[in-house]
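User: Sorry, folds how?
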Amino acid sequence: MATNTKIESGQMLVAEPFMQDPYFRRAVVLLCEHHGQGTIGFILNKTIDMNINDLMSDFPEFEAEVFYGGPVQTDTLHYIHNVGELLDDSVKVSDGVWWGGDFNKLKFLITQDLIKPNNIRFFVGYSGWSAGQLQEEMQYRSWILAETDANYVFKLKHSRLWHHAMYNKGNVFEVISDMPEHISWN
């Protein structure tokens, strides 16, 4: 991968296979915001053992699992979804993927059965990089850029996302995608 690859909102970062950082080991991060001041994203493939009702008592009954978005501000809740045309103030991240929106309207749409658990992903915390930090990590080849597909986010089983994203990069990445996470598993 060329180190001068342009990083943009809406792309995915796929952790290189030997990354040791426990927060990002085999992580796939959706970049929701990238500009001169820094970058914000959410880890798509690391769940926590909770659903949204475990976190919020005043939320409508809703069987949606919660994901670990990253190590920054783990006392905050974020969401991405595929119903941007219904949810006011949503920010389009890529085709079929929006970030945030009017929280009260979100709850209303859930009570009206217009948003289902497969339309949304909730995250505790987020992944963040200060200005220039992500570019530096890219130069060290800590991350591989991949195009986002709404199917990755909402339809693919999260436990297979890293493998699938690596495999779809082709060539050497196909081989890497089949490597076990721990050498002792080989």
The helical segments are 52-55, 103-111, 133-139, 150-154, 161-168, 172-177. The chain has a mean pLDDT of 90. The radius of gyration is 17 Å.
